[in-house]
């Protein structure tokens, strides 16, 4: 796999999702890329942190802002394995994220069905890269949970 | 002012908003009440923390969950001086907040215009307590900013 492609970055997000899976968290992973460098990586930690707001994207956005020393992330791209919910899409609005790439769609809580206008008008949205793998990981997680 | 009334708790949120004002943050304050006890207080700190996600409500929800040792806040009430944005409304969904009381409406970024279905179906919403005072504080802030 070549470096610095969308596939590479989404695969890094997928690695984060797999860590979440191993830690019995809903397996969502995210990375934020600025000028072709990963500046933040995170995975869903709502259980570990006992915090319903600790989605992968929220943690990644806070971490990226911290790294850059700027609350605006206009030049950054978020790669995330599941379609962001409205909370995370709202966070992307406030941070003015340049691009969001998400893998699997979330038909129940994804922002696009509930509130498409939530994201910043300048934020580009790209959908579907590694979607099958991301969806499979989610399905496996909920199968494991039901056991 | 009597203790343990909605007015009392909203006034506590207003005190938080005034601290934000003094610290040159957009003046929004929030408290979370559980069984008539304030378990979290926060004010907007997006500038201080260099984090676009550091809204008063987000900080209060994280803090309340931490205090209770539970990511669910079903028995809690959020008092906030400004209508939550979709990010914060989304956070209230995930934490299943019992009630949200907000003072001033936010016609531009308030959740009710953008995505009313964002909040949890069980969350009760109450609007308008101390709205004039909250709005005046916001107006004063933006006047100060423009100077």
UniProtKB/TrEMBL annotation, chains A, B:
<dbReference type="InterPro" id="IPR002125">
    <property type="entry name" value="CMP_dCMP_dom"/>
</dbReference>
<keyword id="KW-0378">Hydrolase</keyword>
<feature type="binding site">
    <location>
        <position position="55"/>
    </location>
    <ligand>
        <name>Zn(2+)</name>
    </ligand>
</feature>
<keyword id="KW-0479">Metal-binding</keyword>
<comment type="subunit">
    <text>Homodimer.</text>
</comment>
<protein>
    <recommendedName>
        <fullName>tRNA-specific adenosine deaminase</fullName>
        <ecNumber>3.5.4.33</ecNumber>
    </recommendedName>
</protein>
<keyword id="KW-0819">tRNA processing</keyword>
<keyword id="KW-0862">Zinc</keyword>
<feature type="domain" description="CMP/dCMP-type deaminase">
    <location>
        <begin position="4"/>
        <end position="114"/>
    </location>
</feature>
<feature type="binding site">
    <location>
        <position position="85"/>
    </location>
    <ligand>
        <name>Zn(2+)</name>
    </ligand>
</feature>
<dbReference type="InterPro" id="IPR028883">
    <property type="entry name" value="tRNA_aden_deaminase"/>
</dbReference>
<comment type="similarity">
    <text>Belongs to the cytidine and deoxycytidylate deaminase family.</text>
</comment>
<dbReference type="InterPro" id="IPR016193">
    <property type="entry name" value="Cytidine_deaminase-like"/>
</dbReference>
<dbReference type="Pfam" id="PF00383">
    <property type="entry name" value="dCMP_cyt_deam_1"/>
</dbReference>
<feature type="binding site">
    <location>
        <position position="88"/>
    </location>
    <ligand>
        <name>Zn(2+)</name>
    </ligand>
</feature>
<comment type="function">
    <text>Catalyzes the deamination of adenosine to inosine at the wobble position 34 of tRNA(Arg2).</text>
</comment>
<feature type="active site" description="Proton donor">
    <location>
        <position position="57"/>
    </location>
</feature>
